[in-house]
Every structure is written in C-alpha cells, then in structure tokens.
Amino acid sequence: MSILVRQIFMSCFISVSVLAGLIVSYIIVIPTKNAASIWNLTIMDMPFYLFCVLLSILIGIIYGLSTGIHLKKQLDAVTASLHQLENGKLTVLEESHAIPEFQVISQQLNKVKNHLSEQTKLSQKLANEKAVDQEKRMQEIVSQERQRLARELHDSVSQQLFAASMMMSAINEGSGPKEELQAKQLKMVESMIHQSQLEMRALLLHLRPAALKGKSLKEGMEELLIELSQKVQMDVTWKVESLELDKGIEDHLFRILQESVSNTLRHAKAQSLHVLLIERDQLVILRVSDDGIGFNMETEKTGSYGLQNMRERAIELGGTLKVISLPGNGTRLEVKVPILKQEEEKR
Description:
The chain has 347 residues and is α+β, with helices and mostly antiparallel strands. The chain contains nine helices and five strands. The protein has a five-stranded mixed β-sheet with strand order 1-2-3-5-4. Helix 7 (247-268) links the parallel strand 1 (235-240) and strand 2. It starts with a helix and ends with a helix. Residues 342-347 have low confidence and may be disordered.
C-alpha cells in the first residue's frame, strides 16, 4: 500500500471512528427512548449530528496534517541526504523512520553511500600508489613535458612572434605620413608580443615538476603563486590552509592548479586571480577564480583537453569539478574531493 493511499485511508478511518464513538457514547449516556431527540439536540447553535460530523472531519484533518508534517520531515531528511551525496559528502543517513518505505529508502541510500565510499577510498589509494610510482619515473615525465612544451612553443608562440616580426617589417617598409596607421599597427604588435609572453609563461608552468618532490601542497602552491605574482602583471591572491592529505591527492590538486592557472594566462586576459584551498565538512575545496573575459559555456568547447584532464583528475580522486563562466564576468573553477577520516576507513 502506498503512502498516499495509506494516509487517505487512515484519515478516513480516524474520522469514521470518532463519529461512531460520539454516536455510541450518546446512545449509552442517553436512554434509548430519548435517543430520537438527537435530531433536535443542538450544540453551539448547530445540530448535534452535524456537529459530530464536523468534529470527526476536523480530527481526521488534524491527524492528516500531523502525520503529513512528520512525513515531510522524513522526506526533507532524504532530500538533504541526496544533496550531500550529490556534493560528494559521504555521511550515513540515520534509519530512525517509523514508516517502512522510508526505512527501505534509508537502507538503500546508505548502501549507495557505502559503495561510493569504498570506491572513493580505492580511487584515492590508487592515486596515492600512482604518485609514489610517478616519482620513480620523474625523468621520463620531465622529458615528455619538455617535448610537449617544444611542440606548443612552435605551434603558438613562434607563430605569434613571426606575425609580430612581419608586422614590424611592414611598418619599416612603409613610406609617407602614416602616423595613425603606424600607431595602430604598433598597438597590434604590442598586443601580440604581450600575448606571446603570456603564452610562454603559461607553457613554462608545465616545466615545473609534476610531483611536489617532498614539499607539502601548501608549500608547492605558495611557491607557484609567488613566482607567478613576480613575473606576471596580475593581482594574484590566495588563501591556502595547511592540510594533511595523501600524496596522491596533493599531486593531483597541484596539477589541477597548474592547468587552471595556465588556462587563465593563455585565454582569460584577467587582471586578478584568486586561489582558495580549504577543508570544510570532510571535503577539500580548491577554487580558482579570475576576472577575465570568461566564455559562454553553452557555445564554447568546455570539453577541451586541459579541462578534460582536470575533470579526470578530480574524478580519479572521487571528487567533482565545476566550472562557472559568463562572457565578461570571469571564470571560476571549483574542485571538491571527499576526505575519508580514519574511523570511516576502519569500517
């Protein structure tokens, strides 16, 4: 029997029971020969039989409201649990529900959360083992990074510098009074050279070690951001908490930060960059936001290699990655990774 049918049935049953009780009580109290006077009896200027009917309906409504409120609280608890599950918070839902349907839902949700918790622990364990193995292959990784950097330098920075060179040649070969045109061309050259410098600095970020090499995540992030603030004309601010994390989680978050900062330098044209690393409610939160030109998420390619790589790293840790951007309003990237406490790991 469904909850709705049971609620209707119980409300009707309560109303009928109250009505029957009132009628029986009246017949018991009033002698049988006077029972017919029930049709003439009034209470509060209302016929007695009508009063009994309304009273029974009112009691049924009150019962329905009280049980409905109780049901709503239980539904809200289930909804809150689903919202926590969606955001990666793997807390166990209490099964103190009197209604069998909610007990079944709670049991199923807890099974799903336990399953996700086990998957998250396995993913983080694999990421940690992968990070340890990655240190042994550092030379190979550095070689691959340098080769990739050389290709990107050839495909992006070299082409822009070549175009700037051609533009400068056109200016030098021009004749006659063309001050306005020359000023416009020089402005274009300046912009192209500036963009080339940003491209170069963004690509150089990838020359940094893929792993933290003995440093904590806080130390590695601060070193990266301090160096960035010294070399780029951009207001770089950060709030980084000191967290005790597995090496695999630290390395993945550090690489996500590198990729995100690289994208900001190459595409955002931002004046400021803010980085946040905190732990709240058993979640590690990494947020990178800028005030750049942004992009339309419905029309732009949000599945680019860099973004896809960051998303895969977040998923590998059992976490989530969200990107929010609007044209002219900057971009915000947020990664949330669940942290399994020791008591959860022992279950």
